[in-house]
Design a protein that fits this description.
Immunoglobulin-like, 5-stranded mixed β-sheet, 375 residues, single chain, Cytochrome Bc1 Complex, Chain D, domain 2, elongated, 44% helix
Length: 375
């Protein structure tokens, strides 16, 4: 009997020392990230309430089990009570236990209902951003300001850096303390835009619009990722959100409008671009929008995405090439219609680049006027 008691005491002390040791306390960082928005704070509080209730139940149940194992063990001479079900406790426990369980459920249900109502509240917003998932990048359209940003993985981060696969070339910029409305959709397959500190997850579905919202209360940089397995490039769809002061946000919006107006004017200019100018610009457009599928070397991904190096459509059929890039492919919906995403100059540049890079060397150029005619 003494040996059994020592065994249980030692095991309990070992468990307690593990739970309350410094290494275990250090791993508290494995909890959900610290929320920075009103809605994520509600979700975090609900999560913590559930965790506390579950922990208390676990401790009580474990204590009862340990007490029963020690007190009523056969080696101590205890004999099973075969008439337990006829006792007062044996009869009423079938009523008391469900009441206790329902009481615990209702203690959580109140907060859960309140949080769910907040999630499904769609009040007027100060900023509306359409979030479009594509293989494998994010496109952000500021619906009220006519601004569009394409956000790709920053491939210049070394593997030993903490930001490897977590940084982008163009982050989403949002103002602090303003209600943000997100409209989620996708161009090809399911994606899911998720930044746990500031927004809850909801799927991006092709041909369908989902909606979420947030009010970020702290300035800073917040990172997330695609939370829906969207294909071989799923790991290369990080999300970076820069939350800035309201004044800085307004200044950024004005700067973007000026830059977009200048780019539009440049694209509409009645100018004949040289091969060198188009190649220089087209290389940048290709690197931003096309390398994920067709690869930087133009060889594509075998049996998944066709290569452009030495391709018949790229080397010979100019009209088919323009139609494919501008209007997409009906045979393969993964090939997006870039006519709605790029201006005439960008399209002319990237098509020229594809027809003259990687040894294709057709010597042909495509001018913005050609794109305008082919639209």
């Amino acid at each position: 009997m003494i040996g059994v008691r020592k065994f249980f005491v030692r095991r309990c002390l070992l468990i307690a020392s593990s739970l309350f040791s410094l290494p275990a306390a250090a791993e508290m960082k494995l909890n959900l990230p610290t929320p920075a928005a009103t809605i994520t704070q509600e979700i975090f509080d609900l999560h913590m309430l559930t965790a506390y209730v579950a922990t208390i139940i676990m401790v009580i149940v474990t204590a009862i089990i340990l007490y029963a194992l020690i007190k009523f063990r056969k080696s101590a001479g205890f004999e099973a009570d075969l008439e337990f079900n006829h006792s007062w406790f044996g009869r009423w426990s079938w009523v008391l236990v469900p009441i206790i369980v329902l009481g615990i459920d209702f203690s959580i249900a109140g907060s859960a209902t309140k949080t769910l109502q907040s999630v499904e509240t769609y009040d007027d917003s100060d900023v509306t951003v359409k979030v479009i998932g594509s293989q494998w990048k994010w496109t952000y359209e500021y619906m009220d300001d006519g601004i569009k940003i394409v956000s790709n993985l920053n491939k210049n981060i070394p593997e030993d850096n903490d930001l490897y696969l977590r940084d982008v070339d163009n982050p989403l910029v949002l103002p602090v303390n303003r209600r943000i409305r997100f409209l989620h959709t996708a161009t090809d397959v399911l994606h899911a835009w998720w930044v746990p500190e500031i927004a809850y997850k909801k799927d991006s579905i092709p041909g369908y619009i989902n909606e979420t919202w947030t009010v970020v209360e702290k300035e800073g940089t917040y990172r997330g990722q695609c939370a829906e397995n969207c294909g071989t490039g799923h790991a290369f769809m990080p999300i970076v959100v820069e939350v800035v002061s309201e004044d800085k946000y307004d200044e950024w919006v004005n700067g973007q409008k000026v830059a977009m107006a200048a780019a539009d004017a440049e694209a509409r200019a009645d100018k004949t671009w040289t091969l060198a100018e188009l190649m220089d610009r087209g290389e940048k457009v290709y690197a931003t929008n096309c390398t994920a599928c067709h690869q930087a070397n133009g060889e594509g991904i075998p049996n998944v995405f066709p290569g452009l190096k030495g391709s018949k459509i790229v080397m010979a059929d100019m009209a088919a090439h323009l139609d494919m890039v501008i209007h997409g492919s009906k045979a393969n919906p993964v090939m997006a219609a870039w006519g709605k995403q790029l201006n005439d100059l960008e399209l002319a540049a990237v098509i020229t680049y594809e027809r003259n890079a990687w040894g294709n060397d057709t010597g042909e150029t495509v001018q913005p006027s050609d794109i305008k005619s082919a639209r």
